[in-house]
Here is the input.
Amino acid sequence: MTLTVNDAKKMDKEDLLYKFREEFYIKPNTIYLDGNSLGLLSKRAERTLLESLNDWKEHGIDGWTKGKHPWFFLSEKLGEMMAPLVGASANEVIVTGSTTVNLHQLVATFYKPEGKKTKILADELTFPSDIYALQSQLRIHGFNPDTHLIKVKSRNGRFLEEEDIIQAMTEDIALIILPTVLYRSGQILDIKRLTAEANKRGIIIGFDGCHSIGAIPHSFSEWGVDFAYWCNYKHLNGGPGSVGGLYVNKKHFGMGPGLAGWFGSKKEKQFDMEHSLTPAESAGAYQIGTPHVLSLAPLIGALEIFTQAGIENIRVKSLKINRFLMDLIEQELPHLGFCIGNPEEDVRRGGHVSLEHKEAARICKALKENGIIPDFRAPNIIRLAPVALYTSYSEVWEAVQVLKTIMIEKQYKNFKNEREVVA
Ligand SMILES: *Cc1c(COP(=O)(O)O)cnc(C)c1O
Here is the structure.
C-alpha cells in the first residue's frame, strides 16, 4: 500500500497528542527533527522560568523558602515529578548536576574495587563523555584504563547484543555502565534482562538514560537497576544546559555519597553547619552544591506537560510516527544510497531514526538550508527525531519530500561533506 499525504493528515486528525504542539515554540517554515539533541521551548517552561526570576526579584534571599517555586526544595520536587518517567519512587530520583557530573558521582559512590573484582564494563559504542569519566575514575583508583575498562564490542558497528554483554560479566567486573538507548543507532538495550544478569552475579549496574528519558517508559525500580543518570535537555525539553537527573535504587539508601557536599544533607540538618555530613536518606544524598536554580526552573513547566500527556501515550505515538518516517524513507527514497541504521523491531528502537548515507554531513547541511533540522553524527549518520509532543505526521511527510528533492537535484553537492563545530 502506497502512503500519501492524506495518510499523514488522517493520522494528525486522530493524534491524541496533537494539541500539545500548540504549547511549543515552533519556528515558522521549519520542521524541527532534533528534539533528541535539544528539545524545543514550551510556553509552560518559559512561564516557570520567568516565575522563578520573579521569585528572585520579589523575595531575594527568601526565595529559598518562599515564592512560587521555593528553591530549597526544587530539586526534590522535580525528582518527584520525574520519578514516574523512570519507574521509581519519588525519593529515588533527584534533579541535580549534569549527565557527566552525575556519572562521576555515581561511580565515586558505587565503584568499590575489591580483590579480583576491579574492572568496569562498558561498550564500544557508548557516548565519549561517559568513557572519559570512567577512564578518569579508574586512574583516580590507581588502575590503568587500558586494562581495567572493558568495552563490549559491537558485531556490526550499530548494535550491541545482550548475549555479548552478559558474556562479558565476568568475575573481575565490579561495575557495569551501559546506555538505555544507544545515541547513534537508537537501539534500546534489554535493561530488565541485563540488570537481572548483573544482580545474579553481584555486579552493580547503572544506566545512562539520556536518549530514553521522556521518550520511552522505564521500570528501573521494579527491574532492580542500581542507579541511572540522564540529561533533561533532550526529549524532556528542559532547555540548553538544563540540570540533569539521577536515580538510585532505595536498597542503596544510606550509602554515603562518593563526592560529598552540603546539598546532599538531610534537609533539616543542612543549616546546622556541622563538619560531619548527615546524608539525606534518599537520592537527594548525591547532590553536591547549590542547585542551578535558573536551569532547573524551565523543567517545572516542561514536566507538567509530560504528566498530562502520559509517557505511555508518548511512546505509542513515538513508535508510530517513527515507523511512518521509516516507511516513507523506504517508499520515497529507494536507490539513493540510504540505509536505515536503527533496529526494525518496536521493542528495540528508541525515539529517533538513524539514517545512514556516505554523504550524510552535507545532506544535513542541505536539509537545514531547506528548513529541516536534523543532526549529524560522524561519520555517516543523519539522526531524525519526530517528537511525539510536537512533530506532526504532515511534517514528517514534508521532510521526506524535501529530502527526496535534495537527493534528486543533488543539492547536497553545494556543501562540503564535513561536520560543523557542533554537529
Ligand atoms: C547527551 C549525552 C550526554 C551529555 O552529557 P552532559 O554531561 O549532559 O554534557 C552524555 N551521554 C549520552 C549518552 C548523551 O546522549
In short: The longest helix spans residues 311-332.
